[in-house]
């Protein structure tokens, strides 16, 4: 990660000593770099034109302070629930820069989005289209829609985060899309404004996007023949980050290539990046509780767990684990595990480290799908979140208290 650097054998994040920070803050905690988030956004916006709209995918990290920061840098939002839309509105987002994706929008959620006059619904099934139409009719308003088409493109990523293949639940099958557009055209309260796809997450190459664009273009030609005119194409999110020194396409090249491949269409273009905005801007700081060594296996038992970071057990995801104090002693191989009562509770396997109990470690690249996937499993408080902004450490979410965890239960 760019914002992490050793200085005299001690790890600094955005120029501030993590040892110093951890003296004042209880571990485990998340901490983000404002500068890195801004840099990721400006990399995306460098070649943006007035026809491009970037809608940050709120699910990646929905902390309201981060949403405010992201909105202030010129981004709109992609939401998938009433809750995410509520957060975006609270963050001061312009509803005309919000798109709403997701396969299971309820009537209540549709009504909330219509009330807030969002830019458009990304429709994922025929029944959902009718539900949106009925709700809009009931509310005597009109709904802008884009049909999410499943382009059936294979993506090299973890199967749980690939979304653009026939067997995935997302979007409308390519061969059914024209029919759905024709039906949508006849509905009283629907305005068709776009077409969209999202093929998966942690994608490291441009090819699956270009393949999808080529089949979507064929579809757009058919729509035009049927007198269905669009004003935008939404290419989703999905661009990956480097967790383990993966080779990536740069944001600038990605945007240039997508824009080039779409110029002949004369449509506005929407992007929905999530991970690539915040993923490499956050770390989880944790303290080693115990070192447990035996002939067959060594464990570093740290105070962070799967309840703070689900990605390793859920996807077998790799996150670098780096000691805050560099050691000159020889390393051993450890599984880095948490205190949760599950064998799946690991943050890293077979890591070469030299740590003693009491040492601090950093789990890297957890800005996306980190805190949002955390839970209170084992009645563990969700951790606090901080941001480094203008050389200052600012609290942006307090850790749960035990009373908060149980407050909704009948005691
Ligand atoms: N748009 C839609 C419709 C999506 O479903 C997603 C992510 C995005 C945009 C943003 O994709 P991104 O740029 O972040 O790749 N929890 C998993 C990732 C799930 C992604 C779900 N959809 C993980 O930790 O890897």
What does this molecule look like?
With 411 residues, the protein is an alpha/beta fold. The protein has two domains: 157 residues, Lyase, Ornithine Decarboxylase, Chain A, domain 1, CATH 2.40.37; 244 residues, Alanine racemase (TIM Barrel, Alpha-Beta Barrel). Helix content is 28%, strand content 26%. It has twelve helices and 21 strands. Strands 4, 14, 15, 16, 17, 18, 19, 20 and 21 form a nine-stranded mixed β-sheet that branches. The protein is elongated, with a radius of gyration of 23 Å. The model has no long low-confidence stretch (mean pLDDT 95). The chain binds ligand LLP. Ligand LLP binds next to helix 10 and helix 11.
Write the layout of secondary structure elements.
Blueprint: E1 4-7, E2 10-13, E3 16-17, H1 18-24, E4 29-33, H2 34-45, E5 52-57, H3 64-72, E6 76-79, H4 82-90, E7 98-100, H5 107-115, E8 120-123, H6 126-138, E9 143-150, E10 172-173, H7 174-185, E11 190-196, H8 207-225, E12 232-234, H9 251-262, E13 268-271, H10 275-278, E14 282-293, E15 298-302, H11 311-315, E16 321-323, E17 332-337, E18 346-353, E19 360-363, E20 384-389, E21 392-397, H12 402-406
Parallel strand pairs: 4-20, 5-6, 5-13, 6-7, 7-8, 8-9, 9-10, 9-11, 11-12, 12-13, 15-17
Antiparallel strand pairs: 1-2, 2-3, 4-14, 14-15, 14-19, 16-19, 17-18, 20-21
The structure holds ligand LLP.
């Amino acid at each position: 990660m760019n914002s992490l650097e050793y200085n005299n054998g001690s790890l600094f994040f955005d120029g501030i000593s993590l040892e110093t920070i951890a003296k004042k803050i209880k571990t485990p905690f998340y901490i983000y770099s404002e500068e890195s988030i801004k840099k990721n956004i400006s990399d995306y916006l460098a070649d943006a034109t007035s026809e491009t709209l970037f809608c940050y995918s709120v699910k990646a990290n929905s902390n309201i302070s981060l949403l405010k920061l992201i909105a202030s840098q010129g981004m709109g939002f992609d939401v998938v629930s009433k809750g995410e839309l509520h957060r975006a509105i609270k963050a001061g987002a312009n509803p005309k820069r919000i798109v709403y994706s997701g396969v299971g929008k309820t009537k209540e959620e549709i009504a909330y989005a219509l009330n807030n006059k969002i830019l458009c619904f990304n429709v994922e099934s025929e029944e959902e289209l009718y539900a949106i139409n009925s709700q809009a009719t009931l509310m005597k308003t009109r709904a802008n829609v884009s049909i999410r088409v499943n382009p059936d493109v294979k993506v090299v990523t973890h199967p749980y985060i690939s979304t653009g293949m026939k067997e995935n639940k997302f979007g409308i099958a390519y061969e059914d899309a024209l029919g759905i557009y024709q039906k949508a055209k006849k509905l009283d309260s629907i305005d068709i404004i776009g077409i969209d796809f999202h093929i998966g997450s942690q994608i490291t190459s441009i090819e699956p996007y270009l393949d999808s664009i080529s089949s979507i273009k064929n579809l757009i030609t058919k729509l035009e023949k049927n007198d269905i005119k669009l004003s935008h194409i939404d290419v989703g999110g999905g661009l990956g980050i480097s967790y383990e020194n993966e080779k990536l396409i740069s944001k600038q090249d990605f945007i240039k290539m997508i824009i080039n491949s779409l110029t002949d269409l004369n449509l506005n273009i929407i992007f929905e990046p999530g991970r690539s905005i915040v993923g490499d801007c956050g770390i989880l700081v944790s303290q080693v509780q115990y070192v447990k060594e035996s002939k067959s296996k060594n464990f570093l038992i740290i105070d962070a767990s799967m309840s703070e970071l689900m990605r390793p057990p859920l996807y077998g995801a790799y996150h670098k684990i780096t000691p805050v104090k560099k050691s000159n002693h020889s390393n051993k191989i450890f599984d880095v595990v948490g205190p949760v009562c599950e064998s799946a509770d690991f943050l890293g396997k077979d890591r070469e480290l030299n740590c003693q109990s009491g040492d601090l470690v950093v789990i890297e690249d957890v800005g996306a799908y980190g805190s949002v996937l955390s839970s209170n499993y084992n009645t563990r408080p969700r951790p606090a979140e901080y941001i480094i902004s203008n050389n200052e450490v600012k609290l942006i979410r307090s850790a749960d208290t035990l009373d908060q965890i149980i407050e909704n239960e009948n005691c």
